[in-house]
Amino acid sequence: MTAPVSVVERERKFDLDPDQPVPRLAGTGPVADQRDPVETTLEATYFDTPDLRLTRARITLRRRTGGTDEGWHLKLPRPDGAREELHLPLDEGTAVPAQLAELVRPQLGDGELSAVVRLKTVRHSHDLVDADGTVLATLADDQVAGELAGDVLHLDGWRELEVELAPGAPPELLGTLAHALIAAGARPAYWPSKLRRVIAPRLPDKPPAPGRRATAGEVVLAYLRAQVAAIREHDQRVRRDAGDAVHQLRVAIRRTRSALTVFRRVLDRDATRALSAELKWAAGELSPARDTEVLYEHLSGQLTRLPGAAVVANAPARLRSRFEQRTTEARERVRTALRSGRYAALFESLDRLLAEPPLTERANAPARAALEQALKRAHGRLADHVARLTELAPGPELDAGLHEVRKKAKRARYAAEVVVPVAGKRLQRWQREVKALTKVLGEHHDSVVAREALRDLADDEGAFTFGVLYQRELDRGHRLHERFSRLWKGLGAP
């Protein structure tokens, strides 16, 4: 089975009048010359569900013939605004390749892929090169004809410009070229893609009414939409074993769950409780993979810093062997979860939440006042848990109490993320302070987990080395507890 080839796509699109000449970009930044056009005919079939679930998630799946990159293309959004494009050759056939279908399965739910749009593009490509003749970008002048599948035939035709950076070109060049094109009379494209333009009859734009202050429900839903989009993006990266993807997916899941809990007077808690439980389950399935990775990196690093006399000969090998087994088991647990019907149902529940949010009467209240009250309640619960720490005995009981404080601090921090857009800079400062607090508590919890692992590793042969590391972790935990106490004393109310 052919593995997809991944590239990062950085491009901008522009509208150009039919009789307007292609702008000349020679002399713009490092561009020394704009080469004569090369004509290519591109034919593409786009696949989606009948209700366009991929398009709504900013995902594009197509089969294209013509050009140097003909083949199957899956375009996925990236957090930095660029797009990651996965390529497979045409010899994979006319049905959607299984590798690509698997990556978009969470978006499909119970929907099935079919051809939704066909495009024919006559492209005139101008390579933009530097003084050495190296291609920096390509400026494409496209004449496009599109056909939307459905009961009623919809045809469209238009002209557009597209400038795309070559691999290795400096990202800032894209902005430089965009400014030059606008100065030459091009207009930023109204539609973000050719596909989006053709399917516009099925996805009508609904701009917000001007001059109206946001309600609490609108602000919370905007945050949830962003987190669900992040869940989808990082889910695809996990399926491709991308670095840090498991961690980022888990964070997006936890942010979503936190919003459902903290703003339960905006979104009916009874209606979201089951979804919240499934989000907790999903985060739990991801946790061992991330935690095992972090713990091994930390302990192996600490082991290398010990004096040679403190390290018994087999200690590094024992540590590596133990964590290789744990890593394998944790990764398989993630793969099993992502392929499960329960995980697919979670995505369908998230879609329903956004499509039919269970808003309460409180959701119609002005955003700032209603959401700040929810944040203050979250801070109050955090303060209550901190106050209880004085009643806990040092050792496992206090460690567990600090871990509960960490959970409440994270919840307050995530709640602040929701409120910041309507509350301003003062809350941003408080949010940064809470973030520092959660970082210290996170390191403390890592120290507790490390001690547990070191106890399991210790035996007659390796007890000395792992005992030394255990004492270091114990001392580290004490220092972190003291640092937390100092930070808490300096933290005011939001």
Structure description:
This protein is of the alpha+beta class and 494 residues long. Helices cover 52% and strands 17% of the residues. A hairpin with a 5-residue loop joins β5 (60-65) and β6. The longest helix is centred in the middle third of the chain and has 37 residues, at 269-305. It starts with a strand and ends in a 5-residue tail after the last helix. Residues 204-212 have low confidence and may be disordered.
Describe how the helices and strands are arranged.
Layout: E1 5-9, E2 11-15, E3 33-34, E4 38-48, H1 53-56, E5 60-65, E6 71-77, E7 83-88, H2 98-103, H3 105-108, E8 114-129, E9 135-148, E10 154-165, H4 172-183, E11 187-188, H5 194-198, H6 216-239, H7 245-262, H8 269-305, H9 315-338, H10 341-355, H11 367-388, H12 396-423, H13 425-457, H14 463-489
Helix pairs in contact: 6-7, 6-11, 7-8, 7-12, 8-9, 8-10, 11-12, 12-13, 13-14
Give a summary of the structure in a few sentences:
The radius of gyration is 27 Å and the shape is globular.
Written as H for each helix and E for each strand, in order along the chain, the element string is EEEEHEEEHHEEEHEHHHHHHHHHH
Annotation, overall tally of beta strands = 11
| 3D shape | globular
Which percent bin holds the helix content? Answer: 40-55%
Largest sheet: 11 strands, antiparallel
Question: Which secondary-structure class do the elements indicate?
Answer: alpha+beta
Helical run tally = 14
